[in-house]
Amino acid sequence: MIEAGAEGALDAAGKTGPAPAILPPAGGFHGPVKRSVTIAGHDTSVSLEPAFWAALEDQATRRAVPLNALVAEIDALRVSAPAAPNLASALRTWLLANVTHDASISLCRPR
């Protein structure tokens, strides 16, 4: 794992080297795309960047559920949360927490 510090990055052997370059995503940057999803029999529009739509579709496939069902489950968690965010924010936060599989990161803590 590489950790960035003031003097650069630590490699797996613990040696310091130059920090890795920050590069754009392979496919470039893209703005949100609006899609319609059905939650509890009601159509609603959600705007997410293509990378988030792809990650959401991947998670639905991995869980063997339709995309709408996954979105509905995340929405149910969202509306039961204190100070519920909008649906797009909840989807992004859920994806980040579940795709990284890093329970040590608290993504729901307000700053």
Describe the protein in words.
- The chain is α+β, with helices and mostly antiparallel strands and 111 residues long.
- It has a single domain (32-111), classed as protein bp1543 (Ribbon-helix-helix fold, Orthogonal Bundle).
- 36% of the residues lie in helices and 20% in strands.
- The chain has 3 helices and 5 strands.
- It has helices at 50-62, 67-79, 87-100, and strands spanning 3-5, 8-10, 16-17, 33-39, 42-48.
- The strands form 2 sheets. A 3-stranded antiparallel sheet has the order 1-2-3, with no helix packed on it. The protein has a two-stranded antiparallel ribbon with strand order 4-5.
- Helix 1 packs across helix 2 and helix 1 crosses helix 3 (87-100).
- The longest helix is centred in the C-terminal third of the chain and has 14 residues, at 87-100.
- It is elongated.
- The chain starts with a strand and ends in an 11-residue tail after the last helix.
- The model is unreliable at 102-111 (pLDDT under 50).
Labels describing this entry:
single chain; alpha+beta; Ribbon-helix-helix fold; two-stranded antiparallel ribbon; 3 helices; 5 strands; elongated; disordered C terminus
Main-sheet strand order equals 1-2-3
User: What is the level-2 CATH architecture name?
Assistant: Orthogonal Bundle
Structural class: alpha+beta
CATH structural class: Mainly Alpha
- Poorly predicted regions: 102-111
Our estimate of the beta-strand percent is: 15-25%
Radius of gyration: 18 Å
- What is the CATH topology? Ribbon-helix-helix fold
Looking at CATH, the homologous superfamily is protein bp1543
- Count structural domains: 1
Helical stretch tally: 3
Distance between the termini: 26 Å
What's the mean pLDDT score?
83
Helix content: 25-40%
The number of strands is 5
